[in-house]
User: Fold these one by one.
Assistant:
Number 1:
Amino acid sequence: MLIEKLKARFGDEILSAQDARDELTITIERERAYDFFRALRDEADFEFNFLTDITAVDWLERKPRFDIVYQLNSLTRGHRLRVKIGVEGPEPWVNSVVGVWGAADWLERECFDMFGVIFKGHPDLRRILMYDSFEGYPLRKDYHYNKRQPIVAEIDPVVNPIRSSR
Amino acid sequence: MALPARWKNKIVPSDPSDEIMELQMGPSHPASHGTIKFNLKLDGERIVDCDVEVGYLHRGFEKMCEQGTWTQCFPYTDRLNYASPCINNVGFALAVERLLAVETTERCKYVRLIMSEVARIADHLTCLGMASSEVGATTVAFYMLEAREFLYDLIESVTGARLTVTWCRVGGMTHDLPADFQDRMKASFARLDQVLTDCDKLLSRNRVFIDRMAGVGKLAKEEAISYGLTGPLLRAAGVSYDVRKAHPYLVYDRMEFEVPVGDRGDNYDRFNVRFQEMYQSKRIIEQALAALPEGPVTITDPKVVLPEKEKVYNSIEGLMNHFKLIMEGIHVPAGEVYQAVEGANGELGFYVVSDGSGRPYRVRVRPPCFLGMGALNKMLIGRMIPDIITTFGMINMIGGECDR
């Protein structure tokens, strides 16, 4: 079983593991997360070659406040895994996994945009769905859903030349 | 021609080959159906760099879902991928039902499956029709949009709406199939067949079309996997991954169908994969209709499903039941679920978190075309401006889903 293999391989790196509703969830420490994900992708027992999603959940009252949630999938072995990292606000951070999966590029940007999670080592961490001058992080629980912000003035492209992709 | 002597010092000689032009294409460009901006750096007409800006259609889907009850999320899900809203409805309903540990009726599963596939064909028709018109094949666009109308008529006969169907509920659906659905479907499919045959003849071996599509927007298999592409984009690159086969939901494991796969990973393969998928969807619908069991489409658990109107108007228990479900919402046990369905553009995932109250604590959508847009600049760098249009068309970005 996947969960036994994970425990045998990673031991105490896995803080907790649970199997609920046919879905396996593990929680890991953020300090060793990058190597952990690399191993999950490369090692023959796991082969998580596909990053499905990165998102966060804001548990306003809880410590640590945020869960960063990674949904992994193995196209070759057909199993899924959810990995969580608990991080504390107001400036939560984790290491970027862009070097492991290309999909992390935009997913991490969105997570940063919506929750203000800093992905250290991301090559180009900037807002993606909201505009640059937007203040705050809309999906945090302390951002009121009805809050209004002014529409920004148009930016003169001559004064501010357009961006590069990297 | 020699220049006059007095101009000699006034003209700065420039080498056009090292001049990079910056061009902002969009956000409202007639050839890109969808509000999107490309920040281009061009060497002549060749793309040196392309920064894709999305978010123009961001309406705070995930935030708004947290404000209402679980049932109130259904209208929002319609507005994700508005070309195939039935699939979004089904995906969200399945996610909540798994959290509730509720099993829907057999008939419900079949009906959901049938409607998902009808929506998939409609979505592919929209995508291919629009993409064809952008490369000059306007005839195909009109044929395909006409065929889509037949399918919208079908959808309307079941859900009462053509686009924003809001037809699934937790535990079932608002409507069963109409009694004459089989006949309607036969009539629609007969006409659809004709359209598909015609469009196949018009496009598949058309020199102009092939020249515009083949070899354009290529992405290798490993890159496609790394960038998280799913659906026709991934399958065109030669990976046979389909949620319906890999992680079957509803009753897809009882259906016989093939997963069309390409090998070059270019736009022509993407076009072909989509085209073949429509035939496969038809196959699935015909099988499902043949095996469609009788019975109710909605379960009768009073904690999940609204009571019948008869009871609401005539008994205090029914009235209270109705009131509680509307005002407080369905009490979904605390927990989390990731439910993936095969949307028309790829893996559409709903990650829902409940804290045990009547409202969703967090609803996250994994949008397939968002990831596709993330890989777009890899497909475009080194290509020409006209290739943006075909590649963008084949990603089939749906603003509602990409920007949420």
Number 2:
Amino acid sequence: MRKRKQEKLSKDRLIWMYTQMLRIREFEERIKRTFVEHPGVIRGHTHLADGAEASIVGALATREKNDLAMPSYRCHGYPIVLGTSLNKMMAEIYGRKDGLCGGFGGSMHLCDPEHNFPGTSGIIGQAIAHATGAALAAQVKKTGQVIYCFFGDGASKQGAFYESLNMAAVWKLPIVYILENNQYQVYTHVSLEDANAVAGDPLSQKAGAFSIPGVTVDGTDVLKVYEVVGKAVKRARAGQGPSLIESKFYRFSAHGNAITVPPVPTQFPEHEAIETYGRKSEYAAARARDPILLFRKKLKSKKIFSEQAAKQIEESVRTELEATVQFALASPFPKPEEATKHVYA
Amino acid sequence: MPREMMYAEAMATAITEEMTRDSDVIFYGQNLGMTDRDPLVRKFGKNRVRITPISETAEMGIAVGAAMSGLRPVVELWMSEFMLVAMGQLLNEAPRLRYMSGGQVKVPLVFKAGYGFSAGWAGQHSNCIYHTMMGIPGLKVALPSSPADAKGLMTSAIRDNNPVMYLHHYMLMLDKGPVPEGEHVVPFGVAEIKRAGTDVTIVATGWMVSKSLAAAQILAKEGISSEVIDPRTIAPLDIETIVQSVKKTGHLVLVDQAPRHASVAAIIAGEVAEHGFHYLKAPAKMVTAMDTSVPYSEPLEKYILPNEEKIIKAVKSVLEKEQVK
């Protein structure tokens, strides 16, 4: 069979994709800096998407207007692509009144239904079931939506993963499961806890248990992700059911900021590869394959933009994020007595 | 004119009526709607009536996601203990999402399950675990004790915009009683005085309501007038009606099929101690299951559960204490 030709991405679209990747990276960099520059401003636990930019943007670039993105608690990247206000996101992470959720959720629970981002769960694997439920709603109500369900390699060992994929396959739900294999489940390397990884097989092999397509894709290549996810989305929208895509990339930051007890300040430690396993060369090799640098190089070589144009984009993203941080810092805290709101609808 | 109906039939009627009324209501669970002959499948089709595998985490988690996306799922979970394998979805997902979103999303769903099956089901299928749910902000818990309440509370549960645990008592399933014709809605958080009285307030839920009413009848023959109150929902919990009754009777007996420290009785005792202590003429008394798992053999099972005799004894003891004082 002849390979169906991929829909060609316009120059503007490619630049948009590059810009979104940069916005994700810069957002996460500013969060890391906040821990250093403004200790205490970010409380609790924060998980970053640096390294995942190509995977997130490549996947979401395939969506249609009403499709939903439902990830786990490592959730900053997706709403950035969906058009959520960065000011509101940062204000939420700073616990401020102007936050997306009014300071009720924080980093792990970003939620913006208006921008097709219905909510997240802080508990590993549990949101896979929620995304599957959203796909059930799309099917029952015949909305034509496809649900993009993102989760990590760790979550693929949760019961919710197996139960949800089984039911989605039985019911042929319009959902694409994107297993972001960033190599480390919290602090544990995937080779220590995943049967497929132990056997030297791709994690997408899990799809076989549900008789659905399972594909592994290089998650550092935004265009490859776009192509593979695009096919799965087409299939889902045509009523042919779910697919499982293992998107392989490397998480550049540690799992989260260090867990410290106040008043001890917290910030991001070294990546587990270095801190726990002493694998400096592994980490350096992954950084050398930075998805943003790879895409930048490709766009330049294809003359999509010049060095100068690229620098302009990068500068404008930096400026945007500087304003975002200032907005969030200036936003007031919510009134304490508001804490009793929103318990019941 | 009310119609005689079985408790189980009353619940099913409410589900059918609400599914007819609102096309966003869907119903699914294990071992239901298995064939095209199934009456619900015939009426509503397989899109809205679905059979699921034995996957409580997904069944409940999918309901959460579907509810966030505009449906009103009713999930048949059969036995309350089966939900224990999916406690995260029940206690840490469904009731939390609205709050964490700062009020942006709502999660209207019903988790339906039976409980308290005191017929030799032994340790893992007979328990009363509602205490675990009643204290979770964001979650509502209904415990119908009659066919009328079974219908009216199910109607409210499906129409509610929050996650609701609807727990039906297995020992009541075949009980018959009058159910109002047509639309019948029992509001949440409104206790019902099942029997009016002046000497003692007995608060009971589920199966214990009929036991308390039977005890009250026997006590009446001895000249003791009991007021029997059924909170009907334990989250929200109508403390006001109970305190007003205690103000009148001065005596309180709390009957609960759950073990003592995991009971609604203990919660109500605490609330009355704070809000109605000065009305009490004697310490309140709790009649609960003993602190054991539920045993299999009939005499053992009977021994650990509350019954009429234990309720009567408790009522007499609180009334006697007053005389001693």
